[in-house]
Amino acid sequence: MVLLRSEIGSVLRSNRLRQRRTLRDVSAAAKVSLGYLSEVERGQKEASSELLASICQALDVPLAATLREVSDRLAAHEAHWVPDSPEGLFENELAGVR
User: Fold this and answer.
1) How far apart are CA 80 and CA 94, in angstroms?
2) Distances from the Cα of 25 to the Cαs of 19, 20, 35, 67, 90, in angstroms?
3) Is the whole-model pTM more than 0.85?
4) 90 DSSP β-pair partners
5) Per CATH, which fold does 4-94 belong to?
6) What long-range pairs does 66-73 form, CB within 8 A, spacing at least 24?
7) What average pLDDT is seen over the chain?
8) What is the DSSP letter of 90?
C-alpha cells in the first residue's frame, strides 16, 4: 500500500534535487527545521497544509502542481493494484516480477 505522505515527500525531494538545493537551504527558506523537512521528504512525517504550502513556496513550485504530481503518482500506483488478490498484491507481484 502506498502512503500519501511518502508520495508527497518524494515529490518534494525530487523538486529540491532538481533545483540542486540542499535541505538546509530549503528548510531556512520555508522556516521549518532541517530535521523535520528531512522527515517529511522521507515520508516519516505528515506535513500540515500550512507547512506544505511553505515548503512549496520555498521551492518556488505551486502547491497545486505538487498535489497534481502526487495525485498522478497515486493514480499510476493504483492502476497496478489488484484489490481481490491474496494479501492485496500488485499485478507485477502476481506475475513474479520484483
Assistant:
1) 11
2) 11, 10, 12, 22, 38
3) no
4) 81
5) 434 Repressor (Amino-terminal Domain) (1.10.260)
6) 66/8, 66/11, 66/12, 66/15, 69/11, 70/4, 70/7, 70/8, 70/11, 73/2, 73/7, 73/10, 73/11
7) 88
8) B
